[in-house]
Amino acid sequence: xxxxxxxxxxxxxxxxxxVQSSMLNPRFYTTDFDAMxxxxxxxxxxxxxxxxxxxxxDNNHDHFQRDAQFADEVALHMPQLSxxxxxxxxxxxxxxxxxxFSGCILYNEIRKHVNNPDIKQLMTYMARDESRHAGFIxxxxxxxxxxxxxxxxxxxxxxxxxxxxxxxxxTYLSEKIGYARYITIFRHLEKNPDKRFHPIxxxxxxxxxxxxxxxxxxxxxxxxxxxxLRGGNLLWIKFFLLAVYATMYVRDHTRPMLHEAMGLxxxxxxxxxxRITTEISKQVFPLSLDTDNPQFRxxxxxxxxxxxxxxxxxxxxxxxxxxxxxxxAVQAFWTFARLYMMDTLEHELPASTRVVPSW
Length: 359
Description:
Oligomer: single chain
Low-confidence stretches: 1-5
Structural class: mainly alpha
Radius of gyration: 20 Å
Number of domains: 1
CATH class: Mainly Alpha
Strand order of the largest sheet: 1-2
Order of helices and strands: HEHHHHHHEHHHHHEHHE
Number of helices: 14
Mean pLDDT: 91
């Protein structure tokens, strides 16, 4: 794994950063469209139709518009950022944009390749939302002269094939943890407005409710197909839970100044996000990770240390650097494996799938 953040000084640098594929960078996905076309949600029809009405209502249709204060806040706060902090914030924006645009592309491709009216309608709404999110972030990058060419990004970034069930697990978690991240930041800055160093954070509350609803959609799909939530698939659920949490932990710890600037402790922030995501995911997953277990926390900290050592070896180069990277890869594998072997927390699924975004 690599956590090296190269300097972002130009639009070319920003676009190269967005195109990069690694363990920590958001990826683009494709899937089995015929299998997606066969999805049946009839067993959750009432909840599904209610959710479709919420999408149709489009309560955020006018939300992603910059107000008159936006430019003034950028002009006031951005010059005060240190060069290092500026780099971390730009990395955050590019990573967030790439993640949002990844969802837009996946949902739009599914929409184009299926005939199933339920799935086609859902994917149309979700692609609409993610397109707005990506475009809104891109406006902030353009303030720095670093706008991403989204058309070129779609053409040049590598795509990873995931079976539909992997899409369900991974994307459900991505949407829900995205909600937990944004709402935690928003609530903190709501109490500490002096720490809000960029105006984009003022949009996070209603923005993250889009993410929450997207997660609800995948929760309904999985609850309508209960074979996805039992047997050998429990091993995949556990894998994706751990992979998503571990990736977030390592990536966030590469941006310590970003959280410090907001008045957040990175460890406390991450584990708050994990607890929120775990509580939400009980709507669909019959198991959870014990993120408060000291062994779990030590394992994530170990992964970050290995990641730092790998970065140092990559910068060093040469035969010694490559050998060290190989050692780091083995260490990371065994650390992840030990985390995976830890006991999980089990629980019964609730009668109703839908959850209110009340955090």
